[in-house]
Amino acid sequence: MEENTELRDLIIPEHVAIIMDGNGRWAKKRGLPRTFGHRQGCTVVERTVEDAARIGLKYLTVYAFSTENWKRSEEEVGALMQLFRYYMVRLLDVATKNNVRVKMIGDRRRFPKDIIEGINRLERETCEATGLTFVIAVNYGGRDEIRRAAIALCDDVKEGKRDISESFSEEDFSQYLDTAGMPDPDLLIRTSGELRLSNFLLWQLAYSEIYITDLYWPDFNKAELINAIKAYNKRNRRFGGV
Ligand code: IPE
Ligand code: IPE
Ligand code: MG
Fold this sequence. Notes:
Layout: E1 15-19, H1 23-29, H2 34-55, E2 59-66, H3 74-97, E3 101-105, H4 113-126, E4 133-140, H5 142-158, H6 170-174, E5 187-190, E6 209-212, H7 222-233
Parallel strand pairs: 1-2, 1-5, 2-4, 3-4, 5-6
The chain binds 3-methylbut-3-enyl trihydrogen diphosphate (2 copies) and magnesium ion (MG).
């Protein structure tokens, strides 16, 4: 666990979610193509997984590719697919070394076959790890997730597997989401200063604390993660109470 005395008296959030934004602007500032920013962003993901595991988070969820990101140029989407291919292999290594369980959320069916197989393999080979659960949102949209959950529920009702006439709670509905079984994020971090959710975890972020940093994702680091946790410790969570 964390050797860092800075964290000694802090409450460590169980689940931190991150909107990793600003790769393109990071590259542009340096006169580089956007894809260089994505590449640098991937190395920061690797480091952040290790930091999160050491700090003692139970869940870290990152937004890697949204259902809207397909709108980008063919060149950029293609470069992102190549990066997924490359980093999925590296991630298996990082996860194994750090006792990390990897899980993907989002609709993976839209990806090329080899990427789907890579995702399945990552999940399968890390499923027994007992440390951090690292969740990657790919081809993920909050609205799409709720839409898919509604379809799955309708199917269950039609097939007689579920009766919703007696009772059907929010908790019951949560079990149809991609995040079934996971706690909601306690803390949401968004990099690059943007003040919006961009279709991320719309259901799950209902009562999360929000921390926005101006750093572009490729400049994000452990010190900033700790700053976010310190800010979280100063919040008074009321969940609608007093
Ligand atoms: C985040 O960085 C990564 C993805 C959305 C894939 P961006 O690519 O959105 O970078 P900016 O926001 O254009 O700077
Ligand atoms: C959100 O960033 C999606 C990811 C980080 C994967 P975007 O850059 O796509 O969001 P907008 O376009 O600024 O809302
Ligand atoms: Mg962006």
